[in-house]
Amino acid sequence: MGKEEFDHIEEKEQSSFLQRIVEKDLEEGVYSREVCTRFPPEPNGYLHIGSAYAINISYNIAKKFGGKFNLRFDDTNPLKEDKEYVEAIIEDMKWAGFDPGDRIFYGSDYFQQLYDYALQLIEKGKAYVCDLTPEEIRSYRGTLTETGKNSPYRDRSVEENLDLFNRMKAGEFNNGEKVLRAKIDMQSPNINLRDPIIYRILHEDHYRQGNQWCIYPMYDYAHPLQDAIEGVTHSMCSIEFKDHRPLYNWTLEELELTEPPKQREFGRMNLTGVVTSKRFLRELVAEGYVDGWDDPRLPTLRGMRRRGYTPESIKHFLGEIGISKDESTVDVSMLEHSVREDLRDRAPSMMAVMNPLKVVIENYPQDENEFLEVQNHPKDPSMGTRQITFSREVYIEREDFMENPVKGFKRFAPEHEVRLRGAYFIKLVKVVKDEQGEIKELRCTYDPETKSGSGFTGRKPKATIHWVDGKNCKSAEARLYEKLIEDEELLKDKTLSWDKRINTDSLKILKDIKIEKALGEAKKEEKFQFIRQGFYTVDNKHTTEEKLIFNRIVPLKDSWKKGKK
To answer: What is the set of active-site residues?
Structure first.
């Protein structure tokens, strides 16, 4: 896929309502600093396609206006976060083409500043220490149809609140014994403004700060302040944060921060048959239903990389779907279409037989073999040619032969002469079966005058089929992937175990496929088009010197494009 096409897609993607917001702010001189956006992942899991969608928006807005893009880890919860996820997120972003460079920040590095801001809110009478239990706080908060009621601790004096908050920081109280709450409006129709918790006690070591802190800020409080500290101008969030925007603005206004950042929301993007909930993904990984966060059936960037998706195809897909104000669901076939279109031009065409059936060519010399020259790509001569060997024994696909062909069958059969791709015509002489009556091998003859490229213009074969040389081929394993969740309604039924939700055909393993000798030297993550089979890549996790594993990236059939027609 050419650079011009990707540039066009990127431009189309950014011609959005978010771009118009930024353009308007620049025209009105809202900020004296340059445009700055950010992506704030919590390091408690791996990035997935939904993450890439969000990153792509903020990253390209910054790029479009010559601004800055920050990767900031929202690491304010020591119970879930880990350095493993931090390193994985950075690596996956770089792989996907969203390199933050040296603009990598950590929310936990601002703990002292966030604490000082909390003191300011207390001194203004805008925050108080509350002794209600978590259950009582929920009860006092009210519902969507009933307003909340004030905490009995809401009118504590500034002095008492300062004393208690400092003692919370000093570790004098147990987890859950006290919290710091913003004093806003318990009658507000927006539940997020009903005196939200902004600090809680957690006697837990932090992966980055150690045991320095035992009180930790809540995300809704930390988020706007972290943006302000870093000089972010436009804080792009998914649509579920829209109702949190008033709290975002309240925090910045009460602390009287100049040129405060703006939060603006975009619709979440969902894919059919794909699980993007971090909680669900963690369950699948922790309970062993999948092969780790990089399982090729998962929508994690690590999983898509292992499956063989390219960064270019992912970006192309994100550009094609654009940016919506509302939550949307996209057919996963659109993503597969982008992958297929990208690989069609770059992946060399090779021959691999997935379900081998031996063919013995009786009139070919017993100990002889020859070299044949074939193209590396059927439509791109610039990719050159390679030599393959041909000998008395070859393997073909079992499904390419039918002893009693049904009407319309156009491949190899007793009365059907076929060409072996890049080689010769063959005819059937005899079908050899085992004791159970299963076909064991085929005995055939070949016509030496029909060598491919020799200019032969005689009879026309019934079909051309792929094959591999029996004497010089290699054995490998192939893994074929389908949707992990076939019936999305099952995701909504929380009473079902994952055994009942997962598509039992989501992974099919072929233990002994036969491949060209050259494919035996393939490197991890190298990609190929297996003729008539699909696009494949060498598995980057379980492939060893002794065992070569190919993952099917996508089949050749483009169901999305076909459906459009």
So the answer is: 42, 268, 278
